[in-house]
Amino acid sequence: MTERKKLVAGNWKMNGSRASADEIRAMIQGAEALRSQVEMAICPPAVLAGLAGDLVSGSALGLGGQDCHAEPAGAFTGDISAEMWADVGARYVLVGHSERRTAYGETSETVRAKAGAVLRAGLQPIICLGERLSEREAGETLSVIAEQLERSTPVPDETGGIVIAYEPVWAIGTGLTPTLAQVAEAHGRLRQALRARLGARGEGVRILYGGSVKPDNAAGLMSTPDVDGALVGGASLKAADFLAIARACAGR
Ligand code: PEP
């Protein structure tokens, strides 16, 4: 069976400041203790990337971006390239988060181009996807997420270390989560789609669950079949909560 090391990534969204340095130091300490079992990373806002990159440098806590442009450089005011994330020491970049798909109209094709750019820069894209509530209620979840995976994932020969994050849109920031059976069903379908798209390499791709992961529900979610870690929003801002989730992921 293919071993997939679990990954717990924190999406800070538009939160945090330079005063978050103490939380980052506490996260680094916790990540060191868990390093043999779980990989950990934070994705702070871009203006904190330099500060966070310096703090996490050489530690067990990785750095990630929240988004990137598909081009390496150029006249794209306000944007940041995957190469720039690499330059500040990032290992990951989130692409296709539902907030970007919804608020900025990003299509799966845009997401695939960004994911390809992240691979080109030598980093791992965390490709986010998930169904809306109306799609779940219509019984379309499995077909919607399989199609999103197919359209958002770079073609096989570009594919190095991609990560998938299954995030039901209705579970993000709401305190609602799918049942463990629904999570297992969705992750199983995504694994099948990965195998179909990438062959044997699809077996090694980590599939994270995201959407209202908290210290008190993490143990159940993280021990669900085919769940290889978590993408955490609100609960990743405080070291105590984020580390409690990572410990649950490590089975502690
Ligand atoms: C997210 O934004 O990716 C997320 C999972 O948020 P939350 O954990 O707050 O639901």
Task: Explain what this protein looks like in three dimensions.
The protein is α/β, with parallel strands linked by helices and 252 residues long. It has one domain: TIM Barrel. 39% of the residues lie in helices and 16% in strands. It contains ten helices and eight strands. It has an eight-stranded parallel barrel, surrounded by six helices. Strand 2 (38-43), helix 2 (49-56) and strand 3 form a beta-alpha-beta unit. The radius of gyration is 17 Å and the shape is globular. The relative contact order is 0.16. The mean pLDDT is 95. The chain binds phosphoenolpyruvate (PEP). The site of phosphoenolpyruvate (PEP) has 13 residues, from strand 8.
CA gyration radius, whole angstroms: 17 Å
Q: What percent of residues are in strands? A: 15-25%
**H/E series, N to C?**
EHEHEHEHHEHHEHEHEH
Bound molecules: phosphoenolpyruvate
Structural class: alpha/beta
CATH fold-level assignment: TIM Barrel
* Annotation field: number of helices: 10
Helical content band:
25-40%
Unreliable stretches, pLDDT < 50, 5 or more residues? none
